Amino acid sequence: MEKNFRIHYPASQKIYVQGKLHDIQVAMRRINLLDTSIKSLVVYDTSGPYSDDNISIDANKGLPRLREAWIERRDDTEKLSSFSSEYCNAHQSDSESDTVRFKVINLPRRAKTGKNITQMYYARQGIITPEMEYVAIRENQQNDILGISTYITPEFVRSEIAEGRAIIPSNINHPEAEPMIIGSNFLVKINTNIGNSALSSSIGEEIEKSVWSCKWGGDTLMDLSTGKNIHDTREWIIRNTPVPVGTVPVYQALEKVNGKIADLSWEIYRDTLIEQCEQGVDYFTIHAGLLQAHLPLVRNRVTGIVSRGGSIIANWMTLNGQENFFYTRFESICEILKQYDVAVSLGDGLRPGSIHDANDDAQFAELSVLGELTKIAWKHNVQVLIEGPGHVPMHKIKENMDRQIHNCYGAPFYTLGPLVTDIAPGYDHITSAIGAAHIAWLGTAMICYVTPKEHLGLPDKEDVRNGVVAYKIAAHAADLAKGHPGAQLRDNALSRARFDFRWRDQFNLSLDPEKALEYYKAGHLGNESDHCTMCGPHFCAMKLSKQCLDGDNKVM
Amino acid sequence: MEKNFRIHYPASQKIYVQGKLHDIQVAMRRINLLDTSIKSLVVYDTSGPYSDDNISIDANKGLPRLREAWIERRDDTEKLSSFSSEYCNAHQSDSESDTVRFKVINLPRRAKTGKNITQMYYARQGIITPEMEYVAIRENQQNDILGISTYITPEFVRSEIAEGRAIIPSNINHPEAEPMIIGSNFLVKINTNIGNSALSSSIGEEIEKSVWSCKWGGDTLMDLSTGKNIHDTREWIIRNTPVPVGTVPVYQALEKVNGKIADLSWEIYRDTLIEQCEQGVDYFTIHAGLLQAHLPLVRNRVTGIVSRGGSIIANWMTLNGQENFFYTRFESICEILKQYDVAVSLGDGLRPGSIHDANDDAQFAELSVLGELTKIAWKHNVQVLIEGPGHVPMHKIKENMDRQIHNCYGAPFYTLGPLVTDIAPGYDHITSAIGAAHIAWLGTAMICYVTPKEHLGLPDKEDVRNGVVAYKIAAHAADLAKGHPGAQLRDNALSRARFDFRWRDQFNLSLDPEKALEYYKAGHLGNESDHCTMCGPHFCAMKLSKQCLDGDNKVM
Predict the structure, then answer these.
(1) How far apart are CA A541 and CA A7, in angstroms?
(2) Nearest CA-CA distance, residue B305 and chain A, Å
C-alpha cells in the first residue's frame, strides 16, 4: 500500500482541547478567517490524524492507537495470546492471502472473565469514561464559544448512555477510532457505506473511499464488502479508519458457506461474530427482528424484501422451516458482543423499498420485535441502535419516528434516508436527503447516506463525496431545526462572509470548499471581486444593499 | 439560429387528449413499458412541440401559436397595427440590433376598450375557457387511470381561479405557451430561472437552456437577463418556449437608465411594462410591497437585502427620499397588466438571505403589504402569485406558509427554495430542495429552482438539468405527501419495474432516464441482468426476496 493518505482543508489547522477529568486531547478543526472580528471558527472534525501533519501516516502500519492506554488503564480486559475464532486462526496461516494481508498483527483484547466492559455498563455504574468526556468536549465546543458551557456535560453524556438514549460505539479492538456519540440529544450523525462486491473494487480503493468519507464528514463507516478478501479488506479499513466501523456479519458468514443460504448456521455465524469482534468492528447490523410470522405480511408488497440481510435470513427461514436464529440466539449474541463492547444495530430487514410499501404491517411488526430485543441487549449492557427505513413519503415519516420511540424505549434511531419518492434513480442522494433531514429533525440520531448510484451500482469516490455532503446538509439542517446550541454559528459566519464578499472565508467555511471554489472560478476566470457572475457587477443585490444601508443613514 | 432543438424521451410517444367542452388537444407523454400488465404510463409533459416529431421546429420562426384561435374566438381583444411602447418602436428601427433580432414580427394584441380579458375575469363570470379545460385534463389524466374522474373538473379549475387560489399565466401575446395552472390544489409546479448577465452567455445558449428546462420538467421559465440585447433575447425565448415566461421588468428599466438607480422613473418603468406585455411575458415579478418604513428593519440583518429587485427599489427610495413607486402606482400597473392578462408575482424584496434573517420583522412586514396589494390586483381581475423565501431553517418553514395563507387570502405561494442551511455553496440545489419539498407539502403552489451554482455563478446547461431534476423531486414528493390522486402511480410502476429487474422500464419511468442509464452502464459494461453492482449477483436482496416469496408457498 503506497498511498500517502492525507486530508487538507483550506485555511484550517488541527487543534486539540485538553480534557479536565481525563488526560485526553480532543481533536477539532479551526478555520482561520480574514474576518477581523471573530478571526476563526472551530468546527467538528471527523478527519482524524489524516489532517494532522504532525502525525506520520502509513497505511501499512495503521493509525495511532488513541484509546489503547485508556482501555489498559481500566484493567478489566486482557490481551489474548491468539485469536478466538476458528476462521481467523486458519486464515492467519493461509498463504493464499499473503498478498492482500495487513502485515501488522494486533492480538485481540477481550473482557476479563466476569467483567462487563461496555460504555453502557460504566455509565450505569456512574463512571464517566475518557470516551464520555471526549464526546462531551467534542459536541460542546460551539457552546463554549457562545458561553453556554453547561449544555453537554460529561455527566449528561453518561446519563444518556445509561438510559440507552445514546451510544458510543467503541470496540476495545478498534482503539484507532476517536470517540463519537449517537443519540437524539446530540449533533445528528451520518454513516457512509463502502465495500466491494463480487464485481469490483480493490482494497486500496476501499481505503481511499474510507479516508474520503472521513474528509467530507462521515461520522461512522460501514464496510459492506461481499466479494473476495472480505476479512483482509476489513482489517485494512479498520486499522486505517479514525471513526467507528460497522458491518453486517451475515454477509461474510454467507461467503463462508459459498453463498448457500440453507447452509448458514449458528456456529458459522457465531465464529464470524467473534472474528469480527476481535478485528475491531464497532457495531454489527443484525436482522434479529424479522420472524417467520412476518413473511406472509410481505406478500402484497410491491418490492418485497429489499434489505440484503433481511432477504438472506428470510430465505434461510423459508428453506429450513425454522425461526430466525439471530432472534432465537439473541442472548448468546449479546454474551459475545459485551466482551468487546460491540454495539448492536438492530436491522430492519423489512424496511419498505418503495413508497407503496411504507409503514405497512410487515415493517411495523418487525419494529415491535426490535423493541423486545432492545430490552434484552440492555440487560447485558450492550449498546443498541435501531435501524429504520427506507422509502417513505413525507406525510408518513413522523409515524416512523413516533413508533420507534414508543416501541424501542428511546434507543437511538438510525435510518437509511428515507427516500421520499421512487422516481429519481441517479438522484437518490437528493430524494433521501429530503427525508433524512426531516426524520433527523424529528429525532433520528444518525442518518445513513445514500449516493447518486443507489439502485444502479456501487459508488465511486466522487459518489461518496456527493453522498456525504448531501447528508452533512441534512444533518446540519436538522441540528438547526432542533435548536442545537451553536449549530447556527457556522451559518452566520458563512453568511457574513458572503455579505462582505470575503469569498475565501465563504468557501473555507463551507462543507465542500473545493467545489465552491471550482464553481466560483468557472465564472470568474480567477478574479475575486465584489460581485458574482449570477448578477454581474451592476445588479448585485448585496452590493446594492450595502450602498442602501449606508446611504440610508444620510437620506432617511 | 441554426440549432434544431428537439426533445426525445426513451420509449415515449407524444399523445393528445381531446377536450369535451372545447376543441382542444391536450399534450401528454406516454411511456411504453415492457410490463405486460399496465403496458404504459401517461405522464405530465412540459416539453411542448419539441417532443412531437410531427411538428416542424425552426427557432427562427418560433413555435406554433396554439392559443391564437382560442383568443381570437373570444373577440374581446384586437390586434394592434404597431407596438405601444416607445422603446419597442424605437428598437424596431435600430439597425444595431439587426444581427440579434428575431426576424418574424408578431404585432401585439390587447383588450378592446372596456373589455376585461383575464382568466380571473372569465372565471368570475362563470365562463370555462379552453385554457381552463386544458389544465383540467392535463392535471387529471392520472385520475382517469385510477377511475377518479371527478377530482379536477373544468368547473373546479374555474372556481379556484375565480377565488384567486390558482392562476393560469396566459398573456394573449404568448399563444405558443401550453396552459398550465398554479395553485395549492393542483400538482406542485416548478419554475426555472435562466438569463444572461453582463458577463456571459449568448442568445443561442439561453434558448438551449430554455428547451433543456422544458425537457427536464420546468413548468414555467423566468428570463432574468440583465446584460446586452435584453429585448431581443427575451423575444427569442418567448417565441420558442412552450411554457409561461416570467420576468422582473425593473432589470430592463434599469438598463435603460444605464444602471443609474436614481434615474429610474415611473414613465420608464411603465413603458417597459407595456413593451414586455406586448412581447408576451406571462407574469411580472414586481417588488411593490417593500416600503420606506421597512428599511430600518433591515439594519440588524446578517445579509441585508438579497433580492436584486428589492435592493434596486430600496436604493431608489433611499436616493430619492420617496415611497416605492411600484406601490404608489400599483393601480396603474394593474390597469396595464389586465389588458394583456399578465399575472403579477408580488416579489419578496425582503426575503431572508441567511438562516439568521429568516422570519424576521422585515420579511413579515413586507408580506402583509403583499396581502393588501393582492386585494387591489384582484379588484382588477389581475391574477396574483405571492413570492416567498429564501433561507429558512426547517422549524421556521411552517410559519411562512401559515402567514402567507392568512395575509394573502389564499393566493398561490411561490417560493425560492427555501434553503435550510447556509453552509453548502455548490450544493444549494440540495439545501433548497429539502426546504422546497417541505413548504410545497404545506401548500406552496410553485417552487423556484436553485442550481448548484447559486451564490457562485451563472448556471450552465448541466446546472439547469441538476436544478430542474432536484426540484421535480421536491415537487413530486410534495404531491405524494399531499395525497394528490394519481401521483403515486409513477412510483408504483417504477418500483415494480425495479423489483422485476425490468431495468429499461425503471430508467424510462424515471425523471432522468439518461442519467440512470449512464450510472447503470458504468457498473455493468453494457450487460443488463437480474442484479446490480451494488450487491453483485449473489447478494441481491430483491432476487433473494423473489426466491423467498416463491419458495414461501411451498415450505410454510
Answers:
(1) 36
(2) 5
- Residue in chain A closest to B538 (alpha carbons) equals A259
Partner-chain residue, chosen from A304, A308, A423, that has the shortest CB–CB distance to B491: A423
Read off the pTM.
0.96
Residue B554: per-residue pLDDT: 39
| Pairwise CB contact (< 8 Å): A457 & B319 | no
A189 strand-pairing partners: A446
Question: Please, which pLDDT band fits residue B36 given cuts at 50, 70 and 90?
Answer: confident
Q: How many residues does chain B have?
A: 556
Percent of chain A with pLDDT over 70: 93
Interface predicted TM-score of the whole assembly (ipTM), two decimals: 0.96
Q: Which residue's entry shows cell 458482543?
A: A337
DSSP 8-state code for residue A426: T
Q: Does B485 contact chain A (CB < 8 Å)?
A: no
Cα radius of gyration rounded to whole Å, chain B: 24
CB-CB: which of B321, B421, B538 is closest to A198? B538
pLDDT at residue A554, as a whole number: 39
B430·A292 Cβ contact <8 A: no
Q: How confident is the model at residue A260 (pLDDT cuts 50, 70, 90)?
A: very high
Q: What angle do CA B335, B341, B344 make, to 5 degrees?
A: 70
- Please give the single-letter amino acid code of residue B556: M
Average pLDDT over residues B132-157: 82
Angstrom distance (rounded) from CA A10 to CA A40: 13
Instruction: Determine the length of chain A.
Output: 556
A367 touches A407 (CB < 8 A): yes
**Segment holding B43, helix H or strand E:** strand B40-43
Residue B556 has a pLDDT of: 29
Dist CA A133 CA A122 (whole Å): 13
| Distance of alpha carbon B121 from alpha carbon B158, whole angstroms | 10
- CB proximity under 8 Å: A 22-51 to B: none
The total of other beta-carbon atoms located within 10 Å of residue B46's CB is: 26
Q: Which residue of B477, B533, B539 is in closest CB contact with A200? A: B533
Write down the pLDDT at residue B141: 73
CA atoms within 13 A on the CB side of A356: 21
DSSP secondary structure, B219-261, as one string = SEEEE---STTHHHHHHHHHHT-SS-EEE-HHHHHHHHTTT-G
The tens digit of pLDDT for each residue in A347-396 reads: 999 999 999 999 999 999 999 999 999 999 999 999 999 999 999 999 99
C-alpha distance from A8 to closest chain B C-alpha (Å): 18
Across the interface, do A457 and B308 touch by the CB < 8 Å criterion? no
Higher pLDDT, B297 or B527: B297
User: Under 8 Å CB-to-CB from B80, ≥6 apart: which residues?
Assistant: B107, B108, B109, B110, B278
